Amino acid sequence: MTLASAGRFIVAGRAEGRVLAADQGLSFWGGVDPATAWVIDAHHPWAGEDIRGRVLVMPTSRGSCSGSGVLLDLALNGRAPAALIFREGEDVLTLGALVSGLLFGRGIAVIRLNETAFAAAMSADRLEVTDRDLRIGALSIPLSPPPRSDLALSDHDRALRDGAGGEAARLAMEILIAMAAQQGAPDLIDVTQAHIDGCIYASPANLSFAEMMLAKGARVRVPTTMNAISVDHAHWRAQGVAAEFGTAAARLADAYVEMGAAPSFTCAPYLLDTAPGAGEAVGWAESNAVIFANSVLGARTVKHPDFLDLCIAVTGRAPRSGVYLADRRRAGKVLHVTPPKGADDAFWPMLGYLAGLHAPDVVPLITGLEALPASRDDLKALCAAFGTTSAAPMLHVAGHTPEAHLPPLPGASRVDLTRADFVPVWQGFNQAPEAIDLVAFGSPHFSLTECRALAGLLTGRRADRIEVIVTLGRDVLRAARAEGLLDRFADFGIRTVPDLCWCSISEPVFPPSARVLMTNSGKYAHYAPGLSGRAVRFGSLRACVAAARTGLAPSLPDWLT
């Protein structure tokens, strides 16, 4: 593609501003404070930058599906970036920009450039987006108009588009068609179920969207589960949560329940009895859940952004694109790992994080671990951490995941990872002092087997000043109670909190006095500094329990020395 045809609008718009460029993606949820527009991801090159009015240039986004809600909130409150420029395909922020323009009249330009034009934008100090081109100094790059939809619509699709299912279904189909066009999807497919991530109160915009769709008559057409929300729905008042926040978060959850979604309130829907099987097409949001569903269950779902998840639930349809297509599930990079001898369960989230750094926008195949045992909980931790550093919706692990036999794409590169590559990850997760105040378990939500494993380690006494909290879904909570595990937790002084998870927890449920936390979650080790404002330590499940007894996080584990 020549420079003269090097770019196109994904979402049309005009903009002018200073460029903020990075060679890695950013998750707006957990990475940008919607109240200030400041970047709070401590691990990102833009940490501390104000993005309002800036032209953001990055290869693609990464991380949470909730980034669309954060972008919408920024737009509704005059704090949005002026434009978004990507090199690769991108759905999450694009959807936020689409919804902002279509439903609220607050458009944000989204542009995709080829390598040459993208390099020019990366090196620019300032640029302008007109109706027809991108101007960088004396350089003018013509921009093609947004892709037109050539979707082969079914009778059902056309009926919903034309309003036969009501105004909410019409809007949902309009958004689906627009997203399908920018994804290059030839048609829409049926999904058997949906999972709503937009029920987290990431910003007031999430509530505005949900209640608007409810008022327009939205009702789900397929079985639909709900992600963790931002409060313990039944107990937030007794927990001392501020009424303004608690009421809004509960209203958001209630709106989706009224639309027909099941109040599962878990970020680990793969632990439910309704988890999909191999080859089943579903419409899930929530990054860790999508990656686990594709990678471990062998189900099929794109990493759908917040708001699109409801559109899919309301119509029962999703664009046939991305990893719904068999060829898009093949690996674009091979990561060969030499496992460190004696590695404990902290190895798996660290591997996921490292894999995402090396495969930020392609599906990786991890080899070399065929003889290493891996439980479902290990793979759960791997997938969650991978989702913080990669935009890819799945990965393969030879010997452990069902589609690892798929041949990599032609030209797939190979990277060798050894113990030395894991040490910087551990160090990045452990920049805090060794004295801790809080141990945080359950990001993603704890499984029943994780509850059993934790209970098996509870010997001795918890240090008086240390708090230990486990977040988990309602179904797991009931099963753990029935097995007597909650009694063992209580004897050690562990609190269990349902409905919300660490990525949505706030004070006072998050202990206000805690300054340093420790977690066994690679996902939360990444997001916690920005989300909680606290310093972080990381280690295995056993190391976290030991820290709860002593108040001190351990140093570099033996398997990394």
Automatic annotation (TrEMBL):
Superkingdom of this protein's organism: Bacteria
Ranges of residues in domain Phosphomevalonate dehydratase large subunit-like: 152-545
Pfam families from the UniProt entry: AcnX, AcnX_swivel_put
Keywords: Iron, Lyase
Signal sequence, renumbered to the chain: none
GO molecular function: lyase activity
Domain Phosphomevalonate dehydratase small subunit-like: residue ranges: 26-101
InterPro entries: AcnX, PMDh-L-like_dom, PMDh-S-like_dom
Protein name (record): DUF521 domain-containing protein
